[in-house]
Amino acid sequence: MTKKVPVYVISGFLGSGKTTVLLNMLEHFKQQKKIPGIILNELGDENVEDHLFKGEKIVELLNGCICCTIQEDLKTTLDQYIGQEIDVLIIEGTGVANPLEIKEVLLTPAYMQHFELQSMISLVDASHYLEYQSFFSSSKEIRGLLKEQVTSAHLLVLNKMDLISEKELIKVESKLADQLEDHVPVYRTSFGAVPLEILLEKRMHVVEVEEEGAGEIHHDGEHHHHHHHIEAVKINMIEPINTVVLESELKKLSKQVIRSKGIVLLEETPGLYEFQYAASTLVLNKIEDSENKEYKPSIILIGKEIDEKKVAKFREALK
Ligand SMILES: Nc1nc2c(ncn2[C@@H]2O[C@H](COP(=O)(O)OP(=O)(O)OP(=O)(O)O)[C@@H](O)[C@H]2O)c(=O)[nH]1
């Protein structure tokens, strides 16, 4: 199997310091003689920051906007990177992009074979956070987006500390604490100066369940996994499954699994099917040209603190 490319996603509102952090990361990779790939998702039709990335492998998605999905464009862009000689991929969302859309695409069976999400890094401009949050000075849409940029983070970088007072900082942090989960670290800094070992730590934990040895769960090379919050499980499944059983078993996991998707063989009919499960509803679609593509049947469970025993039970029930 080819080595998976580690991926970092940098998100944060307009002007929060994403590009500053990205440039710090690039400098580090260059020193290490690693080849980074970059996906920039800029607003508008022209990227004004082109000059900052001379000589890098870079692909831009130029239509990022608050109301349009970027998922199809992102998939096309990721396809261009498959098989390319890159050691790491950094995706910078637009200030108004929804980072969960990017995460969703990366947690798709086809892309999980090639890419491995390491961390969702969110930047917050400490000097504008309260203003953006305030009911009078920002729209509901913007407040929703800011919240998502915070709640989706594995690492929250509170940037532009040089511009705020201690008093303001207390208010900002207490506001953030309402939205952040307890285990998400907050790093205070200015000009995106986060130590690389903190920035690059692998924080997204996916476990993979192999076909052989049902119930045996292989962690992603981490030894101290018990302290981690497992967010996704990939179950490699070759045998055909029953759709009614699949739906009822997913529902049984409703406390842990918010979302599921995958590519499966069905007992009732031949061919490969892609399925999506969200809001307790299962939707299946036949993959038309599956013979021509390299699809491996697998099921991905996405949620919070997924329990290994329950996953093993789920796996057994589908057999
Ligand atoms: N005073 C101050 N300025 C900063 C800091 N970090 C970044 N800046 C400046 O803020 C501006 C925006 O920073 P960027 O890194 O371009 O922010 P961004 O999130 O990529 O912005 P968009 O591309 O608009 O989404 C730049 O002029 C930076 O030099 C900081 O900690 N303090």
TrEMBL record:
The keyword Ion transport does not apply. Pfam families: cobW (PF02492), CobW_C (PF07683). Coiled coil: none annotated. Residues 237-313 form the CobW C-terminal domain. Residues 6-187 form the CobW/HypB/UreG nucleotide-binding domain. InterPro entries: CobW-likC_sf, CobW-like_C, CobW/HypB/UreG_nucleotide-bd, P-loop_NTPase, Zinc-reg_GTPase_activator. SUPFAM superfamilies: Hypothetical protein YjiA, C-terminal domain, P-loop containing nucleoside triphosphate hydrolases. Keywords: Chaperone, Hydrolase, Nucleotide-binding. It catalyses: GTP + H2O = GDP + phosphate + H(+). Gene3D superfamilies: CobW-like, C-terminal domain, P-loop containing nucleotide triphosphate hydrolases. The keyword Iron does not apply. Belongs to the SIMIBI class G3E GTPase family. ZNG1 subfamily. This is Metal chaperone YciC. It comes from Sutcliffiella rhizosphaerae.
